[in-house]
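sry for the spam today, last one i promise. struct tokens for design, 438 residues
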């Protein structure tokens, strides 16, 4: 229901319960049909590395559909808009699952098209659906309870996601069948579609719908002139690019380079997800002492260490213990949320409240689409060339890939360093350690 004024207290409580139920169902749904399962389906169907890595880039490239959420929200409100896009998103997920019989009974080219189209809309409709998610939550919580409710929400979402990912890992340990992955994906689509009904039970103020009607182009032209905004677009671009180039390819490497099973591959994803939760917690603590800009710099430095780690692991792949394969996943997972949270914190500290909606849309759309498109071109080109010389399953292919990825990502360090220091950072003593970055 849309109220003309603020949402009444009794409706706020009911809306909070519906939001928690949404998180529970959606947490299970996403891990049954998220990056890990989609990538495993593509690998299992024998898709080229260029296609598999392109699916990883879709997570960010699909942000091109984010403005669509603003348009729909201006017509039907934030809750109905998210519910609609959540159903559409899970229909796209069903298309991904149907790529399995398409590959086995028709041809692989059709299956790869279904995977790419389904993956694009799966992530794109998510971006469109959550465009007003934060203001929607703000309307169903009082200022005094907002922090505790968000903390509770994040804990529930993380817990259900972990449980679901462990269940997927156990299932894949019991059977190595492609049909099991397809069944998991279909279950994820059904649970995700079910979760949309709880979004409809969230009440909101008409202010959200009215704010979505406001034209953005004039405001975007204004904010683009601000140096602090442009540098944040570049920073988020580099952060996204690092995740795209290093994370999906790590899963490809353990599957095709080291030959691990689907069940063990999901275990790596479990470790990565747990590390991401740890990175979120650590980033919030460190930001109070160092400032979010410095946390972003250190997080980017840390994720770059994935490159030499994979170089060492692939150089000694015949004699090295498989336990060491967890290291790049732990680091990438830790840095994923650490980078995201620190950049979000920096955004809130440097952008005026009246401009946050416009700047947020600009940053996520421009940097997401830009990094995704750039990564699509880079990964497909590199893998197409390397596989001609070394083959798809050679560790040499992946070692050279990571070296090239590291070279591409290294200038991003200067982009983060160029972010304007916050007042708290200016007052802090500059130590000799990484002084050139501070």
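last one done:
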């Amino acid at each position: 229901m849309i109220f003309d004024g603020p949402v009444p207290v009794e409706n706020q409580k009911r809306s909070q319960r519906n939001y928690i139920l949404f998180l529970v169902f959606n947490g299970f749904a996403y891990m049954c049909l998220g990056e890990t399962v989609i990538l495993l389906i593509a690998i299992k169907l024998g898709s080229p590395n260029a296609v598999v890595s392109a699916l990883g880039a879709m997570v960010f490239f699909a942000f091109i559909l984010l403005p669509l959420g603003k348009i729909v929200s201006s017509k039907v409100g934030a809750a109905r808009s998210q519910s609609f896009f959540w159903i559409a998103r899970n229909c796209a997920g069903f298309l991904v699952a149907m790529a399995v019989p398409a590959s086995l009974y028709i041809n692989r080219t059709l299956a790869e098209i279904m995977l790419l189209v389904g993956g694009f809309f799966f992530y794109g409709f998510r971006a469109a659906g959550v465009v007003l998610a934060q203001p929607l939550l703000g309307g169903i919580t009082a200022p005094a309870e907002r922090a505790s409710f968000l903390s509770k929400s994040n804990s529930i979402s993380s817990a259900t996601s972990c449980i679901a990912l462990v269940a997927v890992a156990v299932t894949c340990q019991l059977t190595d069948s492609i049909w099991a992955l397809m069944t998991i994906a279909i279950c994820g689509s059904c649970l995700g579609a079910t979760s949309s009904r709880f979004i409809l039970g969230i009440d909101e103020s008409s202010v959200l719908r009215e704010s979505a009607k406001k034209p953005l182009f004039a405001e975007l032209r204004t904010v683009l002139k601000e140096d602090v905004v442009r540098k944040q677009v570049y920073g988020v671009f580099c952060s996204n690019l690092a995740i795209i180039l290093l994370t999906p390819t790590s899963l490809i490497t353990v599957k095709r380079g080291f030959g691990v099973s689907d069940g063990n591959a999901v275990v790596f994803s479990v470790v990565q997800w747990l590390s991401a939760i740890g990175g979120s917690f650590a980033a919030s603590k460190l930001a109070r002492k160092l400032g979010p800009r410095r946390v972003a710099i250190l997080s980017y430095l840390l994720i770059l260490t994935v490159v030499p780690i994979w170089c060492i692991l692939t150089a000694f792949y015949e004699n090295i213990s498989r336990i060491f394969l967890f290291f790049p996943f732990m680091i990438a997972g830790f840095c994923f949320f650490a980078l995201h949270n620190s950049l979000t914190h920096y955004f809130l500290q440097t952008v005026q409240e009246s401009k946050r909606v416009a700047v947020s849309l600009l940053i996520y759309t421009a940097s997401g689409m830009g990094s995704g498109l750039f990564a699509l071109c880079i990964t497909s080109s590199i893998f197409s060339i390397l596989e001609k010389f070394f083959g798809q399953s050679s560790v040499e292919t992946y070692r050279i890939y990571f070296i090239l990825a590291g070279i591409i990502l290294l200038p991003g360090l200067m982009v983060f360093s160029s972010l304007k220091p916050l007042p708290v950072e200016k007052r802090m003593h500059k130590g000799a350690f990484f002084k050139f970055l501070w």
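The first helix runs from residue 9 to 32. ok im logging off now
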